[in-house]
Design a protein that fits this description.
The chain has 2 domains: 68 residues, no CATH class; 201 residues, P-loop containing nucleotide triphosphate hydrolases (Rossmann fold, 3-Layer(aba) Sandwich), CATH 3.40.50. Strands 3-2-4-1-5-6 form a 6-stranded parallel sheet, sandwiched between helices. By secondary structure, the protein is of the alpha/beta class. Helices cover 47% and strands 12% of the residues. The N and C termini lie far apart (55 Å). It has 15 helices and 6 strands. Helix 7 crosses helix 8.
Protein backbone atom coordinates (compact mmCIF):
# COMPACT_ATOMS: atom_id res chain seq x y z
CA UNK A 1 0.00 0.00 0.00
CA UNK A 2 1.29 3.48 -0.90
CA UNK A 3 0.76 6.13 1.75
CA UNK A 4 1.05 9.89 1.65
CA UNK A 5 4.12 10.78 3.82
CA UNK A 6 2.94 14.36 4.32
CA UNK A 7 -0.50 13.22 5.51
CA UNK A 8 1.02 10.63 7.88
CA UNK A 9 3.31 13.27 9.40
CA UNK A 10 0.37 15.59 9.95
CA UNK A 11 -1.58 12.88 11.77
CA UNK A 12 1.39 12.08 14.04
CA UNK A 13 1.86 15.78 14.85
CA UNK A 14 -1.78 16.15 15.90
CA UNK A 15 -1.57 13.03 18.04
CA UNK A 16 1.61 14.28 19.68
CA UNK A 17 0.05 17.53 20.93
CA UNK A 18 -3.08 15.90 22.35
CA UNK A 19 -2.79 16.17 26.13
CA UNK A 20 -4.04 13.41 28.44
CA UNK A 21 -7.42 14.13 29.99
CA UNK A 22 -5.96 13.76 33.50
CA UNK A 23 -3.41 16.49 32.82
CA UNK A 24 -6.14 18.80 31.56
CA UNK A 25 -8.31 18.14 34.60
CA UNK A 26 -5.34 18.93 36.85
CA UNK A 27 -4.62 22.14 34.95
CA UNK A 28 -8.22 23.26 35.41
CA UNK A 29 -8.11 22.53 39.14
CA UNK A 30 -10.73 19.78 38.96
CA UNK A 31 -8.24 17.12 40.13
CA UNK A 32 -5.10 17.00 42.23
CA UNK A 33 -2.07 14.86 41.36
CA UNK A 34 -3.11 12.51 44.13
CA UNK A 35 -6.57 12.21 42.59
CA UNK A 36 -4.98 11.32 39.24
CA UNK A 37 -3.00 8.48 40.85
CA UNK A 38 -6.16 7.16 42.50
CA UNK A 39 -8.05 7.21 39.21
CA UNK A 40 -5.22 5.41 37.40
CA UNK A 41 -5.17 2.70 40.06
CA UNK A 42 -8.93 2.29 39.73
CA UNK A 43 -8.57 2.15 35.94
CA UNK A 44 -6.06 -0.68 36.20
CA UNK A 45 -8.40 -2.58 38.49
CA UNK A 46 -11.69 -2.10 36.62
CA UNK A 47 -10.76 -0.80 33.16
CA UNK A 48 -12.58 2.02 31.42
CA UNK A 49 -11.75 5.55 30.37
CA UNK A 50 -9.97 7.96 32.71
CA UNK A 51 -12.68 10.62 32.64
CA UNK A 52 -15.54 8.20 33.19
CA UNK A 53 -13.65 6.52 36.01
CA UNK A 54 -13.02 9.84 37.76
CA UNK A 55 -16.68 10.71 37.29
CA UNK A 56 -17.80 7.38 38.76
CA UNK A 57 -15.51 7.90 41.75
CA UNK A 58 -17.15 11.26 42.43
CA UNK A 59 -13.90 13.20 41.96
CA UNK A 60 -15.13 15.41 39.12
CA UNK A 61 -18.44 16.70 37.77
CA UNK A 62 -19.87 16.05 34.33
CA UNK A 63 -19.35 19.73 33.54
CA UNK A 64 -15.63 19.54 34.44
CA UNK A 65 -15.22 16.49 32.22
CA UNK A 66 -16.97 18.13 29.28
CA UNK A 67 -14.78 21.22 29.61
CA UNK A 68 -11.59 19.16 29.67
CA UNK A 69 -12.74 17.18 26.62
CA UNK A 70 -13.52 20.45 24.84
CA UNK A 71 -9.94 21.62 25.40
CA UNK A 72 -8.56 18.25 24.29
CA UNK A 73 -10.52 18.34 21.05
CA UNK A 74 -9.94 22.03 20.31
CA UNK A 75 -13.59 22.99 20.87
CA UNK A 76 -13.52 26.56 22.24
CA UNK A 77 -16.03 28.07 24.64
CA UNK A 78 -15.95 30.36 27.66
CA UNK A 79 -16.85 30.13 31.35
CA UNK A 80 -19.69 32.12 32.87
CA UNK A 81 -18.37 35.31 34.43
CA UNK A 82 -14.93 34.89 32.85
CA UNK A 83 -15.55 36.77 29.61
CA UNK A 84 -16.83 40.09 28.30
CA UNK A 85 -19.15 38.26 25.90
CA UNK A 86 -22.87 38.82 26.50
CA UNK A 87 -24.66 36.03 28.40
CA UNK A 88 -27.09 35.65 25.47
CA UNK A 89 -24.31 33.97 23.47
CA UNK A 90 -25.41 30.49 24.50
CA UNK A 91 -23.19 28.79 21.93
CA UNK A 92 -20.15 30.41 23.56
CA UNK A 93 -21.07 29.82 27.22
CA UNK A 94 -23.26 26.71 27.16
CA UNK A 95 -22.32 24.73 24.03
CA UNK A 96 -23.72 21.48 25.42
CA UNK A 97 -27.15 22.92 26.19
CA UNK A 98 -30.42 22.70 24.30
CA UNK A 99 -30.26 26.26 22.99
CA UNK A 100 -26.79 25.77 21.50
CA UNK A 101 -28.01 22.55 19.90
CA UNK A 102 -30.72 24.58 18.15
CA UNK A 103 -28.08 26.87 16.66
CA UNK A 104 -26.05 23.86 15.51
CA UNK A 105 -29.14 22.44 13.84
CA UNK A 106 -29.58 25.72 11.97
CA UNK A 107 -25.89 25.66 11.03
CA UNK A 108 -26.35 22.18 9.56
CA UNK A 109 -29.41 23.24 7.55
CA UNK A 110 -27.58 26.25 6.11
CA UNK A 111 -24.48 24.19 5.33
CA UNK A 112 -26.57 21.71 3.37
CA UNK A 113 -28.60 24.33 1.54
CA UNK A 114 -26.08 27.05 0.83
CA UNK A 115 -22.50 27.11 2.04
CA UNK A 116 -19.96 25.72 -0.44
CA UNK A 117 -16.81 26.80 -2.26
CA UNK A 118 -18.80 29.17 -4.48
CA UNK A 119 -21.46 30.31 -2.01
CA UNK A 120 -20.06 31.62 1.25
CA UNK A 121 -21.93 34.83 2.16
CA UNK A 122 -25.33 35.00 3.88
CA UNK A 123 -27.31 38.04 4.99
CA UNK A 124 -29.46 37.45 8.06
CA UNK A 125 -32.31 39.95 8.18
CA UNK A 126 -34.84 40.57 10.93
CA UNK A 127 -38.33 41.52 9.81
CA UNK A 128 -38.30 44.24 12.48
CA UNK A 129 -35.93 45.42 15.20
CA UNK A 130 -37.42 43.12 17.88
CA UNK A 131 -36.79 39.88 15.99
CA UNK A 132 -33.51 39.09 17.77
CA UNK A 133 -31.48 38.99 14.58
CA UNK A 134 -28.13 40.11 16.04
CA UNK A 135 -28.20 37.54 18.84
CA UNK A 136 -29.07 34.77 16.41
CA UNK A 137 -26.35 35.61 13.89
CA UNK A 138 -23.74 36.01 16.65
CA UNK A 139 -24.53 32.57 18.08
CA UNK A 140 -24.57 31.07 14.61
CA UNK A 141 -21.14 32.54 13.88
CA UNK A 142 -19.76 31.00 17.07
CA UNK A 143 -21.03 27.56 16.03
CA UNK A 144 -19.41 27.86 12.61
CA UNK A 145 -16.12 28.80 14.28
CA UNK A 146 -16.46 25.85 16.69
CA UNK A 147 -16.82 23.64 13.62
CA UNK A 148 -13.37 24.79 12.54
CA UNK A 149 -14.59 27.04 9.73
CA UNK A 150 -12.86 30.37 9.20
CA UNK A 151 -15.87 32.59 9.87
CA UNK A 152 -16.29 36.32 9.25
CA UNK A 153 -19.16 38.03 11.08
CA UNK A 154 -20.02 41.45 9.62
CA UNK A 155 -22.14 44.04 11.40
CA UNK A 156 -23.97 45.70 8.51
CA UNK A 157 -26.68 47.24 10.67
CA UNK A 158 -25.33 50.78 10.61
CA UNK A 159 -28.52 52.14 12.21
CA UNK A 160 -28.78 50.33 15.56
CA UNK A 161 -25.68 48.12 15.78
CA UNK A 162 -25.47 45.45 18.51
CA UNK A 163 -22.65 43.07 17.63
CA UNK A 164 -20.01 45.12 19.47
CA UNK A 165 -22.15 44.92 22.63
CA UNK A 166 -22.62 41.16 22.30
CA UNK A 167 -18.87 40.60 22.02
CA UNK A 168 -17.82 43.26 24.55
CA UNK A 169 -15.99 45.43 22.02
CA UNK A 170 -15.69 49.17 21.44
CA UNK A 171 -17.42 50.82 18.49
CA UNK A 172 -14.48 52.90 17.30
CA UNK A 173 -13.54 51.25 13.99
CA UNK A 174 -15.61 48.99 11.78
CA UNK A 175 -17.52 48.57 8.54
CA UNK A 176 -18.62 52.22 8.31
CA UNK A 177 -15.02 53.47 8.52
CA UNK A 178 -13.90 50.84 6.03
CA UNK A 179 -16.58 51.75 3.47
CA UNK A 180 -15.87 55.45 3.93
CA UNK A 181 -12.16 54.87 3.25
CA UNK A 182 -11.11 55.88 6.75
CA UNK A 183 -9.65 52.53 7.80
CA UNK A 184 -7.98 49.39 6.47
CA UNK A 185 -9.60 45.98 6.85
CA UNK A 186 -6.80 44.55 9.02
CA UNK A 187 -7.37 47.33 11.57
CA UNK A 188 -11.13 46.92 11.56
CA UNK A 189 -11.31 43.12 11.99
CA UNK A 190 -10.76 41.46 15.37
CA UNK A 191 -10.94 37.91 16.73
CA UNK A 192 -12.56 37.34 20.16
CA UNK A 193 -10.70 34.99 22.54
CA UNK A 194 -10.75 31.98 22.54
CA UNK A 195 -12.50 31.67 19.17
CA UNK A 196 -9.48 31.86 16.89
CA UNK A 197 -11.58 30.85 13.86
CA UNK A 198 -14.06 33.69 14.35
CA UNK A 199 -13.37 37.16 12.96
CA UNK A 200 -15.54 40.20 13.65
CA UNK A 201 -16.06 43.28 11.52
CA UNK A 202 -18.45 45.33 13.62
CA UNK A 203 -20.38 48.32 12.32
CA UNK A 204 -18.16 51.05 13.72
CA UNK A 205 -19.39 54.54 14.58
CA UNK A 206 -22.97 55.20 13.37
CA UNK A 207 -22.63 57.22 10.14
CA UNK A 208 -25.03 59.87 8.80
CA UNK A 209 -25.36 58.02 5.46
CA UNK A 210 -25.65 54.26 6.12
CA UNK A 211 -27.56 53.35 2.96
CA UNK A 212 -25.15 55.25 0.75
CA UNK A 213 -22.16 53.52 2.34
CA UNK A 214 -23.68 50.06 1.88
CA UNK A 215 -24.47 50.94 -1.75
CA UNK A 216 -20.82 51.63 -2.53
CA UNK A 217 -18.92 49.24 -4.74
CA UNK A 218 -16.45 48.99 -1.84
CA UNK A 219 -18.91 46.73 -0.01
CA UNK A 220 -19.05 44.43 -3.05
CA UNK A 221 -15.26 44.39 -3.20
CA UNK A 222 -15.05 43.63 0.54
CA UNK A 223 -17.28 40.56 0.21
CA UNK A 224 -15.41 39.33 -2.87
CA UNK A 225 -12.11 39.59 -0.99
CA UNK A 226 -13.64 37.89 2.06
CA UNK A 227 -14.81 34.95 -0.07
CA UNK A 228 -11.16 34.22 -0.82
CA UNK A 229 -10.14 34.19 2.84
CA UNK A 230 -13.09 32.74 4.75
CA UNK A 231 -15.25 29.61 4.70
CA UNK A 232 -18.40 31.36 5.92
CA UNK A 233 -19.42 35.03 5.90
CA UNK A 234 -22.43 35.92 8.05
CA UNK A 235 -23.87 39.43 7.79
CA UNK A 236 -26.06 41.02 10.46
CA UNK A 237 -28.40 43.16 8.35
CA UNK A 238 -30.82 45.94 9.40
CA UNK A 239 -34.56 45.21 9.77
CA UNK A 240 -36.20 44.69 6.38
CA UNK A 241 -39.39 46.65 7.07
CA UNK A 242 -37.65 49.67 8.57
CA UNK A 243 -34.81 50.50 6.17
CA UNK A 244 -33.87 49.81 2.53
CA UNK A 245 -30.37 48.85 3.70
CA UNK A 246 -31.34 45.18 4.13
CA UNK A 247 -32.17 44.89 0.43
CA UNK A 248 -28.73 46.16 -0.54
CA UNK A 249 -26.99 43.84 1.92
CA UNK A 250 -28.97 40.81 0.70
CA UNK A 251 -28.17 41.66 -2.93
CA UNK A 252 -24.44 41.86 -2.16
CA UNK A 253 -24.48 38.59 -0.19
CA UNK A 254 -26.45 36.59 -2.73
CA UNK A 255 -28.58 34.86 -0.10
CA UNK A 256 -30.65 35.82 2.92
CA UNK A 257 -32.37 34.30 5.93
CA UNK A 258 -35.38 36.03 7.49
CA UNK A 259 -35.68 36.20 11.30
CA UNK A 260 -39.03 36.64 13.08
CA UNK A 261 -40.21 36.72 16.69
CA UNK A 262 -42.90 34.35 17.97
CA UNK A 263 -46.12 36.14 19.04
CA UNK A 264 -44.68 39.45 17.80
CA UNK A 265 -44.09 39.20 14.06
CA UNK A 266 -47.25 39.08 11.95
CA UNK A 267 -47.59 36.83 8.91
CA UNK A 268 -48.44 39.91 6.83
CA UNK A 269 -45.10 41.44 7.86
CA UNK A 270 -43.22 38.31 6.78
CA UNK A 271 -44.92 38.38 3.39
CA UNK A 272 -44.08 42.07 2.98
CA UNK A 273 -40.44 41.41 3.89
CA UNK A 274 -40.26 38.60 1.31
CA UNK A 275 -41.71 40.87 -1.37
CA UNK A 276 -39.15 43.57 -0.54
CA UNK A 277 -36.27 41.10 -0.76
CA UNK A 278 -37.47 39.44 -3.98
CA UNK A 279 -36.08 42.12 -6.38
CA UNK A 280 -32.58 41.73 -4.87
CA UNK A 281 -32.13 38.38 -6.61
CA UNK A 282 -30.84 36.90 -3.36
CA UNK A 283 -31.77 33.30 -2.64
CA UNK A 284 -34.23 33.18 0.26
CA UNK A 285 -33.11 30.19 2.34
CA UNK A 286 -35.97 30.27 4.81
CA UNK A 287 -37.45 31.90 7.90
CA UNK A 288 -36.39 31.44 11.51
CA UNK A 289 -38.84 31.93 14.38
CA UNK A 290 -37.19 33.22 17.56
CA UNK A 291 -38.85 32.47 20.91
Amino acid sequence: MVTNPQRSTRIRDVTAIKKPIGELLCASGALTEGDVRRVIEEQRRTGGLFGQTALRMGLITEDALQRALAVQYGYPYVDEGQSTLAPTLAAAYRPFGEQAETYRRLRTELSLRWFSEDMKALAICGVHRHAGCSTLVANLAVTFAQLGRRTLLIGADLRRPRLHQLFGLTQETGLAELLAGHSLIDKAVTSPHPFDRLYLLCSGVIPPNPHELLSKHTFHWLLEAARERFDAILIDAPPVLEYPDAQMVAARAGACLIVTRRHVTRIADVLTAKSLLAPTGAALLGTVIND
